[in-house]
Design a protein that fits this description.
It is a single-pass membrane protein. Its cofactor is heme. It comes from Sesamum alatum. The chain has 16 helices and 4 strands. It is mainly α. It has a single domain, classed as Cytochrome P450 (Cytochrome p450).
């Protein structure tokens, strides 16, 4: 009897081994070049404290399309204009999904945010809402007066501080935060003058900084799932803390908006949270927009429009101060097109190609997110690079 049991176990092991070999042979793909991985950690030993620089150095050796192994996860990295066009435009649908990460779970309301939701009906609906409702030309133009008022406020504050050293980044952060707050939330929720504020401007800025950091880190637990419970880097604990802070603030915002909507008959949506709450009541939506989805979208809008704009402006001015000849050309274009007797308006931008080129070059030299949010291939596909064919799983 015992011999029969061992014979059965041995036969089962042989069967599993042969099946594994067959599946591996069938799944063997012509992957892009890359360094040989170590057991367990893969190529994580090659990634330093600044991952985008480590990846750039590796791309100099292995090319603009390379294959790395991060723990248990195979990763294909594209690091050229050609590859960006392939992944983000030509084959966008193939790479439209997102991997399941701790950041998406804990800071993205369980993958309900625009940034972390996987491809599917919910993702398609979110994209449609952004294009048609939230970021339509008509709606963005209707908020132009807010941007004008906040820019004028920024200039007045800078004028009052003339003759003194100022930390420009702080002024720019406050300005962009006020613009986005009024467009998304309907008012300056973060003014220092507001009584009983849920969160102070300083604390909210720290929350944003923490959110940006935690959504951009390489979390070992995501890459080696069987040790994720250890939270070796402490990132998951920090994600839970910052998500609770944001949720407390967003609950207050939604409660206030819902109370205002109930108290006025025939209420007309004024800001983006109003639009989202209106959409949440729409019975024709393919996927119902739940309360946590409204909070996730609102958080995305606040985070995506504040620090990114302020940092870009700060770098642009910094680069201009280091290049007097560029500063002079920009001033000459402003004097020629706008003159010295009026302010620049948004409608003037198409007539200011040199200024626009400065902004684009700033974004090229100092990207807000050197490494984009990771994408997940929805199916095996073929990618061409300089007449070479690679398969991606």
């Amino acid at each position: 009897m015992e011999t029969q049991i061992w014979s059965t176990c041995l036969s089962l092991l042989v069967f599993v081994y042969l099946l594994t070999k067959i599946l591996r042979r069938r799944k063997k793909l012509n992957l892009p070049p890359g360094p040989k991985p170590w057991p367990v950690i893969g190529n994580l030993n090659l990634i330093g404290s600044l991952p985008h620089r480590s990846l750039h150095q590796l791309s100099q050796k292995y090319g603009p399309l390379m294959h790395l192994q991060f723990g248990s996860m195979p990763v294909v990295v594209g690091s050229s204009v050609e590859m960006a066009k392939v992944f983000l435009k030509t084959m966008d649908v193939n790479f439209a999904s997102r991997p399941k990460t701790a950041a998406g779970k804990y800071t993205g309301y369980n993958y309900s945010s625009i940034a972390w939701s996987p491809y599917g009906p919910y993702w398609r609906q979110a994209r449609k809402m952004c294009l048609i409702e939230l970021f339509s030309t008509k709606r963005l133009e209707s908020y132009e007066y807010i941007r004008v008022e906040e820019i004028n406020s920024l200039l007045r504050n800078l004028f009052k501080s003339s003759g003194q050293p100022v930390l420009l980044k702080d002024y720019l952060s406050i300005m962009t935060l006020n613009v986005i707050s009024r467009m998304v939330l309907g008012k300056r929720y973060l003014d220092k003058d507001i009584d009983n504020a849920v969160v102070s401007p300083e604390e909210f800025q720290k929350m944003l900084d923490e959110l940006f950091l935690l959504n951009g880190v390489i979390n070992v637990g995501d890459l080696i799932p069987w040790i994720s419970f250890l939270d070796l880097q402490g990132y998951v604990k920090r994600m839970k803390i910052v998500s609770k802070k944001f949720d407390r603030f967003l609950e207050h915002v939604l409660d206030e908006h819902e109370e205002r909507r109930r108290s006025v008959d025939g209420y007309v949506s004024r800001d983006m949270v109003d639009v989202l709450l209106e959409l949440a009541e729409d019975p024709t939506l393919e996927v119902k927009l739940e309360r946590h989805g409204v909070k996730a979208f609102t958080q995305d809008l606040l985070a995506g429009g504040t620090e990114s704009s302020a940092v870009t402006l700060d770098w642009a001015i910094s680069e201009l101060l280091k290049k007097p000849e560029t500063f002079k050309k920009a001033t000459e274009e402003l004097d020629r097109v706008i003159g010295q007797n009026r302010w620049v308006y948004e409608k003037d931008m198409p007539n200011l190609p040199y200024i626009e080129a400065i902004i684009k070059e700033t974004m090229r030299l100092h990207p807000i997110a050197p490494i984009l949010t990771p994408r997940l291939a929805r199916e095996d596909c073929k990618v061409f690079l300089n007449s070479l064919l690679f398969f991606i799983d």
